[in-house]
From TrEMBL:
A Gene Ontology BP annotation from the UniProt entry: fatty acid elongation
Keywords: Oxidoreductase
Species in which this protein is naturally found: Haloactinopolyspora alba
PROSITE patterns xref list: ADH_SHORT (PS00061)
Family: Belongs to the short-chain dehydrogenases/reductases (SDR) family.
PANTHER family according to UniProt: 3-OXOACYL-[ACYL-CARRIER-PROTEIN] REDUCTASE, CHLOROPLASTIC, SHORT-CHAIN DEHYDROGENASES/REDUCTASES FAMILY MEMBER
Top-level taxonomic group: Bacteria
Pfam families in alphabetical order: adh_short_C2
Protein's recorded name: 3-oxoacyl-[acyl-carrier-protein] reductase
């Protein structure tokens, strides 16, 4: 049965692969984007997750076209990498406001409809960095680690209403960003990954779609790594 799915930051990379995976399964999918045009074949809505009024407007538009959101994938995120002693307060707070507080804003708004329907799936896209840490990414790692506490608290708070909240934590994924790394850095990363390769965005998308499916109806408050074994034990 087709569901109403919203993927934040779904206009490129992992978010786009996730959105297309749901669409291919027959769901009605909308992606949020801050500028430009939505990806070909997908519905899009402008949304700035750092602005609650923008989030409210985006949800109102989605609800008017495809119904209340039944599956939310909170994927929107940014990076502002620099070493701790060089990191300004704006570089820290901007990343946390987008990646963590932004996820809170969209999850809170989605939960209203899910509570009325007594069902729903919330999937937060974290990162192996949020579990392992990474030099130069104090802000990003903090924001991604915070999603774990958020998801687990939501799982306890909303579980009695048939709503699940889970975290998918990708490792290094083939993308424009990793393509720009030097050969030396790519080799260093791969040496740390037991499977010896990067993930594809589609591999992450398939796990997200599974955790939002009926097959995972009894899975909530979980952290599901898609990292080739890089973060095992964390």
């Amino acid at each position: 049965m087709s569901r109403s799915v919203l993927v934040t930051g779904g206009n490129r990379g992992i978010g786009l692969a996730i959105a297309r995976s749901f669409a291919e399964a027959g769901d009605a999918v909308t992606v949020t984007h801050r500028g430009g045009e939505p990806p070909s074949g997908l519905s899009g809505v402008r949304c700035d997750v750092t602005d609650m009024s923008s989030v409210e407007s985006a949800f109102d538009e989605v609800e008017s076209t495809q119904g209340p959101v039944e599956v939310l994938v909170a994927n929107a995120g940014i990076t502002r990498d620099t070493l701790l002693l060089r990191m300004g307060e704006d570089e820290f707070t901007d990343v946390v406001d987008t990646n963590l507080t932004g996820a809170f804003r969209v999850a809170k708004r989605a939960a209203k409809g899910m509570l009325r329907a007594r069902r729903g799936r919330v999937v937060f896209i974290s990162s192996v960095v949020g579990l392992l840490g990474s030099p130069g990414q104090v802000n990003y790692a903090a924001s991604k680690a915070g999603l774990v506490g958020m998801a687990r608290s939501m799982a306890r708070e909303l579980g009695s209403r048939g709503i699940t909240a889970n975290v998918v934590a990708p490792g290094f994924v083939e993308s424009d960003m990793t393509d720009e790394l030097s050969d030396e850095r790519r080799e260093q990363i791969l040496a740390e990954v037991p499977l010896g390769r990067y993930a594809s965005a589609d591999e992450v998308a398939r796990v997200v779609r599974w955790v939002a499916s009926d097959d995972a109806a009894y899975v909530t408050g979980a952290i599901i790594p898609v990292d080739g074994g890089l973060g095992m034990g964390h």
